[in-house]
Amino acid sequence: MNQQSTKTDNKSIANKIFIRKEAIKELTKVCVLDLFAGRNVLWSNIKTDKYFGIDIICNKGKNLNADTRKIIESLDLAVFNVIDCDSYGIAFDLYQKLLSRKDVKNGTIIIYTLITNEMTNIQNAAKKLFNFQHFYDKAPSLFNAKAIEFFYEFLANSGIKKVNFYSIRDKFDKHYGYFVVDR
To answer: In terms of pLDDT, which residue wins out, 170 or 43?
Structure first.
């Protein structure tokens, strides 16, 4: 088995719950859209006023069973002040959609998980965004190793001025964090 095929659901549960509690500690009302909800483990012990989970796998949790990428355009994001995007890898395509949507209000907290290493392929959305799709195949590991840097550059280019995160480095580079939409 190679490293890029290893996917685990919530390997760092305590860390992920901690970052969510930190992200929402100033909110008086917590309305969560969980884009990759899994078994709802991360939000099950955190008080929310509204929780809506989505997961592509049936019977994994109390979720809408759907492909987030296919239905994101049809969701009314204005009713949520927290959007949790804890996907495998780095979901550049979803962050692009979220930050371009007018119904994502100022003050919305977007929680993210970034997991990558030299062997983890970068999404085509990132290759296109940074205009290196023609060079990628010649040296993919060079680009893969910089995927998290590309993500933070994307946020800066999108007007995000402050990001709160912590990182863990083992076989993978992992960043758990959040930012607040401020347009």
So the answer is: 43
